[in-house]
């Protein structure tokens, strides 16, 4: 969470959940004080490691990142200094590792202070299924090279690629039983069918397919064409 990005979003009343450094300066809300001259205090006592250990801990099993995990949560309503005194729900999340030890705590902040610690962690974990899409858009699908295009062309390109990505993900989950794995990757017998394998199969099926000739403008019908030899594959 970067201040330069978050503060303008907060001005637009956008609700934010994100991970920050564990040493981020967090303070308790200020104690009520008698009326006095000058501005009111924004920050109370700073939340340090000793105070963090005194917070009540909750252990529960949550479905996170595609599997059931035992987590330990601590939570408090705090004031974030880097957000200029915005109240946030701070959640420290530890996960049980394979060697039966707890992982280092992750600090997650949510501007919706009415959310529970469990809800904050579950919502934040949804990034596991979303961030690969943005990674692919930026690194592999050419979005970094589309700066010279118009806004409409850029949005259309992103929509097409994102839809295609989502469809391969869904098809890989739905058609895994009938997927011809032995024809695509026989060395991966018994492996999980991924969207990458499904995309590889689709490339094999559509190479040399004259898709532009499939639509008949006179009748308005789409007829699946027969595959032909791709000229690019000829020596």
Automatic annotation (TrEMBL):
Residues 9-166 form the Transposase IS4-like domain. One of its GO terms (biological process) is DNA transposition. InterPro entries: RNaseH-like_sf, Transposase_11. GO terms for molecular function: DNA binding; transposase activity. This is Transposase. It comes from Ferrovum myxofaciens.
């Amino acid at each position: 969470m970067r201040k330069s990005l978050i503060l303008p979003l907060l001005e637009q009343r956008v609700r934010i959940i994100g991970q920050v450094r564990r040493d981020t300066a967090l303070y308790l809300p200020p104690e009520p004080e008698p009326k006095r001259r000058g501005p009111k205090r924004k920050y109370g006592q700073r939340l340090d490691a000793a105070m963090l250990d005194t917070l009540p801990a909750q252990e529960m099993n949550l479905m996170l990142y595609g599997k059931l995990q035992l987590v330990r949560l601590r939570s408090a309503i705090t004031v974030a200094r880097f957000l200029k005194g915005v109240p946030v729900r701070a959640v420290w999340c530890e996960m049980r590792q394979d060697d039966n030890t707890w992982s280092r705590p992750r600090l997650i902040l949510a501007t919706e202070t009415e959310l529970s610690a469990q809800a904050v962690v579950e919502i934040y974990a949804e990034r596991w299924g979303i961030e690969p899409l943005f990674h692919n858009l930026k690194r592999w699908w050419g979005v970094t090279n589309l700066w010279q295009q118009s806004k409409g062309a850029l949005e259309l390109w992103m929509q097409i690629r994102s839809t295609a990505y989502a469809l391969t993900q869904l098809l890989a989950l739905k058609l895994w039983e009938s997927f011809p794995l032995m024809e695509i990757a026989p060395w991966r017998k018994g492996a999980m069918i991924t969207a990458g394998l499904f995309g590889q199969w689709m490339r094999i099926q559509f190479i040399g397919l004259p898709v532009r000739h499939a639509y008949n403008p006179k009748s308005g019908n789409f007829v699946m064409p027969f595959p032909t030899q791709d000229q690019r594959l000829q020596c």
